[in-house]
C-alpha cells in the first residue's frame, strides 16, 4: 500500500480526487489531506508520503514553495502538480524543481490512473535499486574485514610489491602517507596464563580491535599464535617525537586494558614511523624485534628508544640484502655463513633474551621469504614461535634457509623443463621450415648461448642434431610412402638443396635416399 498526500485548499477537490483513486485502485492507497502549504509540509515531514498531489494556488505558503521545502527533507517523494489552465506556467516551473508530472483541473479518471501507474512503477524501481544497494553494502560489510585481514597479512609477510595490495588498499579506501606498526605479544611460558588466553582470545581480539580502532583509526591484523599486529596511520601535523610519545601512551592504555579486563600481562612493541606500504612492513618487523614475551618484560617498548638509548645497533640492511643475494644464487654455504654473522649480531654476545632474538630472526626470515617470492611466511611465524631455546631457534632458522634454497632450485628446474617443452613444441611445428637455434632461443626468451647449453642438457643432443633427426625420420616416412619423388621430399622436410639433403641423409641412415627407397621396394610385397 502506498501513502498519498493530497494538498488542495478546496475540500471538495480533495474528496473527489480520493474517491476517484479509491475506485481505480481499491485498497491501494492510504490518504492524507492538507488544506494549505504549511499543513502539507508538516504532514510530509511527519508521515513521509510516497506520492503527493499538490495544488499550486493555495492560501499562505504556495504550492511551489511547499514543494521546495518538502523535497529538501523528502527528496524521494513523487510529486504531481495540480493546476488550472491559468497557472500552467507555474506547473512548468515545478517540473524544474523535481516535480514528476502535472494534472490540469478537473483531472480525468484515465489521466489520474496513468500518472499513478507511472509513479508506482518509479517507486518500485527505486525500491528495487535501494534493496540491491543495501544487499551490496551488506556483502561489502562482510568482505571488508576479510580485506583488512588480507592487507595486514601482506604487510606482515612483506608482500608489499604485489599489485593485489594496492587493490585491497583501494577497496578499504586507504591512502596512508606515513604510519607505524604496533605488536601485542601475549604470554606463552606461563601455562595458566596461556590457557586463559586461549579460552578468551576471540573476546580479547575484539576488545583490542574496537579499542584501538576507535582511538587510532588503525588496521587490525589477525591474531596469529600469541601475537596481534596493528598498523596505525600518522595523523596530519604530528611530529615524529610527539607521535612516539603518543604511541607509547596508547601502548600503555592497551596494556592496562588487557590487565584490567582480562587479567593478562602483555608485551607491546612499537616500530618506527615510515613511509608507504613497504615502510609499514618494515615497521612491523621492528615492532616484532622489540616485542619480548618473557615474564620479566611485560611492558611497552619502542624500536627507536631501544636503538638510541640502549647501546644496541640496528642490523645493516646491506647485510640482510647480501644474505638474500646468497639465497637467490642458491649458495647454501654462503647463506649459512652470512646468517651466522647476523645471528651473532642479534644475540649480542648471548646477552639478549630469547624472545628478542626470536623477533629479530623472524623479521629477517620474513624479509628473505618475500625476497625469494615464497608464500611460507605464515609457516615461518608458526615454526619459529615454537623454538624454546637458542639452539633450536638457530637450527629452525637454518632449516628454513635450506628450504628456501631448495624451493628456488625446484622452481628453477621446473622453469627449465617448461622452457625445454616449449622449445620442442616450437621445433615440431617449424622443423620443416628454415629454422635456426637463434630463432628458437628468441621464442623461449633465452640467449642463444644459454639455450644451447640448456637444450643439450635436457635433450641429450645438440639443437642441430635434434632437428636433423626429425627431418630424416620424416623423410624416411615420406620415402616409404612412395607418393613424392626425392626432390619433393627434400623440400618437404626443410632442405633447399637436394645434394645436401642426400649427404645428410646418407650420414644419418648409412645410405642415400634413392638407395633407401630401392631397399624398401625390394622388401615390399611382390
TrEMBL record:
The modification 4-aspartylphosphate is found at residue 55. Gene3D superfamilies: 3.40.50.2300, Homeodomain-like. Residues 421-519 form the HTH araC/xylS-type domain. It comes from Paenibacillus phytohabitans. SMART domains: HTH_ARAC, REC. Keywords: DNA-binding, Phosphoprotein, Transcription, Transcription regulation. Pfam families: GGDEF_2, HTH_18, Response_reg. Residues 3-120 form the Response regulatory domain. SUPFAM superfamilies: CheY-like, Homeodomain-like. InterPro entries: CdaR_GGDEF (IPR041522), CheY-like_superfamily (IPR011006), Homeodomain-like_sf (IPR009057), HTH_AraC (IPR018060), HTH_AraC-typ_CS (IPR018062), Sig_transdc_resp-reg_receiver (IPR001789), Tscrpt_reg_AraC-type_HTH (IPR020449). It comes from the Bacteria. This is Response regulator.
Amino acid at each position: 500500500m502506498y501513502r498519498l498526500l493530497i494538498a488542495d485548499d478546496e475540500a471538495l477537490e480533495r474528496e473527489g480526487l480520493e474517491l476517484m483513486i479509491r475506485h481505480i485502485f481499491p485498497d491501494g492507497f492510504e490518504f492524507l489531506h492538507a488544506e494549505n502549504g504549511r499543513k502539507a509540509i508538516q504532514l510530509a515531514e511527519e508521515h513521509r508520503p510516497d506520492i503527493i498531489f499538490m495544488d499550486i494556488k493555495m492560501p499562505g505558503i504556495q504550492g511551489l514553495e511547499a514543494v521546495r521545502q518538502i523535497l529538501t527533507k523528502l527528496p524521494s517523494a513523487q510529486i504531481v502538480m495540480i493546476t488550472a489552465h491559468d497557472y500552467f506556467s507555474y506547473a512548468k516551473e515545478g517540473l524544474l524543481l523535481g516535480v514528476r508530472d502535472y494534472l490540469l483541473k478537473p483531472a480525468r479518471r484515465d489521466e489520474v490512473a496513468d500518472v499513478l501507474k507511472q509513479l508506482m512503477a518509479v517507486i518500485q524501481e527505486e525500491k528495487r535499486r535501494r534493496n540491491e544497494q543495501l544487499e551490496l553494502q551488506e556483502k561489502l560489510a562482510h568482505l571488508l574485514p576479510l580485506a583488512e585481514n588480507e592487507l595486514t597479512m601482506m604487510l606482515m609477510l612483506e608482500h608489499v610489491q604485489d599489485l593485489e595490495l594496492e587493490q585491497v588498499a583501494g577497496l578499504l579506501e586507504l591512502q596512508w602517507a606515513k604510519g607505524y606498526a604496533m605488536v601485542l605479544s601475549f604470554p606463552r611460558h606461563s601455562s595458566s596464563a596461556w590457557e586463559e588466553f586461549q579460552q578468551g582470545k576471540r573476546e580479547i581480539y575484539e576488545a583490542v580491535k574496537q579499542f584501538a580502532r576507535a582511538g587510532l583509526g588503525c588496521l587490525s591484523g589477525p591474531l596469529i599464535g600469541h601475537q596481534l599486529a596493528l598498523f596505525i596511520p600518522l595523523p596530519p601535523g604530528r611530529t615524529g617525537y610527539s607521535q612516539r610519545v603518543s604511541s607509547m601512551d596508547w601502548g600503555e592504555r592497551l596494556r592496562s586494558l588487557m590487565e584490567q579486563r582480562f587479567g593478562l600481562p602483555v608485551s607491546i612493541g612499537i616500530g618506527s614511523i615510515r613511509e608507504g606500504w613497504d615502510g609499514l612492513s618494515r615497521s612491523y618487523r621492528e615492532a616484532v624485534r622489540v616485542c619480548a614475551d618473557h615474564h620479566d618484560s611485560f611492558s611497552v617498548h619502542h624500536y627507536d628508544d631501544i636503538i638510541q638509548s640502549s647501546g644496541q645497533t640496528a642490523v645493516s640492511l646491506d647485510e640482510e640484502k647480501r644474505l638474500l643475494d646468497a639465497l637467490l644464487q642458491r649458495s647454501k654455504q654462503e647463506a649459512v655463513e652470512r646468517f651466522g654473522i647476523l645471528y651473532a649480531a642479534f644475540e649480542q654476545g648471548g646477552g639478549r633474551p630469547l624472545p628478542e632474538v626470536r623477533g629479530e630472526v623472524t623479521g629477517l626470515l620474513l624479509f628473505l621469504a618475500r625476497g625469494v617470492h615464497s608464500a611460507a611466511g605464515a609457516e615461518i611465524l608458526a615454526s619459529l614461535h615454537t623454538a624454546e631455546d637458542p639452539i633450536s631457534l638457530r637450527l629452525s632458522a637454518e632449516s628454513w634457509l635450506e628450504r628456501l634454497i631448495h624451493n628456488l632450485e625446484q622452481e628453477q628446474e621446473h622453469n627449465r623443463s617448461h622452457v625445454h617443452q616449449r622449445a620442442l613444441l616450437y621445433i615440431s611445428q617449424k622443423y620443416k621450415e628454415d629454422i635456426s637455434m637463434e630463432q628458437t632461443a628468441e621464442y623461449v626468451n633465452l640467449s642463444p648461448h644459454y639455450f644451447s647449453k640448456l637444450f643439450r642438457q635436457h635433450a641429450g643432443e645438440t639443437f642441430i642434431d635434434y632437428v636433423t633427426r626429425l627431418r630424416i625420420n620424416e623423410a624416411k616416412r615420406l620415402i616409404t610412402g612412395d607418393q613424392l619423388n626425392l626432390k619433393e621430399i627434400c623440400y618437404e622436410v626443410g632442405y633447399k638443396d637436394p645434394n645436401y639433403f642426400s649427404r645428410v641423409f646418407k650420414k644419418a641412415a648409412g645410405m642415400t635416399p634413392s638407395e633407401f627407397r630401392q631397399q624398401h621396394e625390394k622388401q615390399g610385397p611382390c
